[in-house]
Design goal:
The protein is mainly beta and about 150 residues long. The chain contains 1 helix and 10 strands; from the N terminus they run E-E-E-E-E-E-H-E-E-E-E. It has a domain of about 100 residues: Hcp1-like (Pnp Oxidase, Chain A, Roll), CATH 2.30.110.
Amino acid sequence: MADDGSAQSTNVWPLPKFYFQVKLDSEVLSFQEISGLDIEAQPIEYRHGDSPEFSVLKMPGIKKNGTVTMKKGVFKSDKKFWDWFNQIKMNTIKRIPVTISLLDEAGEPTMVWTLANAWPTKISGTDLKADGNEVAIESIEIVHEGLTISNQ
C-alpha cells in the first residue's frame, strides 16, 4: 500500500512564504511583498603593534538594521501610508511597532518578526503606463530601531 503522507510529521516541510500577515500598530494591512528583514553586526578590525600574527582581529561591533520595504496594491481612498508619512515634523515622528507574521495552514503565526519604533522613510507611488495591464502598486520603506524574531 502506498504511503499517503498522513503519518508524516508537520516539521518535515518548510513553510511557504506566500501566507503572511502585517500589523502596523494594531491595524492589520494586506501587502503583496515584503523585503529587508535583515540585521547585521558590523565588524571591528583591530591589530595591536606587537602581534605575532600579520593580520587583524575581527570583533562584533554595532548592529545595523536593514530598511524594510513593503509593497501593496493601490485602493481608492486608501491613504494610510501618506497619513503616517505626513506626521513627520521637525524632530518628531509617530513611531509604531510593526509585526510581520508568517502563517501556517490554519492561519496561525509560526514565525514573527517585530520591528521596534518603526517609521516611514520613503513612499513610492505606482508607475503609470498607458499600455499596461498590471495592478497599481505602491511601496513604503520603513526604518526601525531593532528587529526581534520569535519562532512559535
